[in-house]
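Exercise 4. Each item below gives a protein and its sequence. For each, produce the structure-token representation.

Item: Dihydrolipoyl dehydrogenase (Saccharolobus caldissimus).
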Amino acid sequence: MMHEANVITIGAGGASYPAAFLLAKAGYKVIMIDDKGVMSGNCLYEGCIPSKTMREIAQLIVRKKRFEEFGVLGEVKVDYKRIVSHKDKVQEMRYKQHEEELKETNGMVEIVKGIGEIVDPTTVLAKTENGNIEFKAKNGIIIGTGTVAVKPEIEGKEYCITSDDIYKLHPTVQDLPDSFVIIGGGYIALETASFFQAFGSKVTVLVRGHRFLRTMDEEFVSKLVSLLDPEIKVEYNSPVKRIEKVSNKFKVIYSGQGTEKEIEADLVLCATGRKPVPPKGIEKVGIPINEKGYIIVDNSMQTNVPNIYATGDVNGLKPLFHAAVRMSIAAARNILAGNKKVDYVYLDSIPTTVFSIPAGSIVGITKDDASKLGIPVLEASYQLNKDSRAQAFGELGGEIKLFFDKRNMKLIGGWIVGIDAGNVINTIALGIQMGITARELTDFAGQHPMVEEELGAMARQITF
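Answer:
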């Protein structure tokens, strides 16, 4: 039997459910097919929510240790099981919250637990525990199937955990390792290293290349890495050759400066990236994917099949939850317009934060980007050792940079490393989204004593 709905989503995470809610308000019936059978996606189950919950605890520990010099705080003792328990409670709290949000749609949005497969441009097959169900989409299909963690093709990779084993609901890792080797040079490696060093593990990071975060602005990354806990041991240009089990520990053998080295640890994490998981059947309808496996879309989130959209991590444009939400909304608006392109996602105004300790956030076009694009730039910088909030917390090494197009004085990019980075970047991103100029930013009276107030001061460097 064929079931009908206005829109079918494959996936029920941030790339899908914001669209579903918007469409439901417009009177559209939406079916979300998801292998977990709940509204969440990877962000809540094993990604940003659990990892950033743990990050907040790690940040508190770091700050508590810093203030011990005043003699008013006792010794820091970490109960890792209780940290995991708190993480789980936050995830469960948000799952309940999503359940309530789903109920509020009064049946206009439904979730089917299963794996979605595209049959033709208007039909999706849901493979469920109780058999297969076909759904016909009258108005559109949204693919929001995300990515999964991958391990490198090295001998002994089965001895590695992935970030899922740390951050998923009721994770495999329940005890704090005394020694912890992290393989990878991306944001997951950097963040996890910061957390576990704060918790009390002895952390070593093996980076295959010569730097962390190789796709990000080099000056930004250099500043961020310079402020990490110096107790984190980092080995660059150190590709891993194999991993061995030795008694109750693991031995990691890697290349370093032309010689073979080894290190033992209680736990080994492969933080070596994620790969997209497009649904089966896209080849039947002629939707192309690129060399890395991502579904190709334009900035309306539309594929080459006008009624089929790919949103969130599966398109590889900006693998972030908040980006997925924005893409999801764009897809919904374009479906409501009869699959005409009326909404486009402005990727340059979507910020990225590396939630290490300290954090670093970046958005838009940086100085290096502008040089490649032939855009003349005016730059403003601010050292956070002059900021009152940074001084109060004793977090003095950070920096903010803003970049303006010299031709029209519009804000086009910026970054911040240090205190409140994840908050301040939102103000910068909003300025980029709204096309604010340096002159307009000079009139911004940011709350004192908060870091945002420095943005106006930075603009005055340019205009006064």
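Check: The domain at 151-272 is CATH 3.50.50.60 (FAD/NAD(P)-binding domain).
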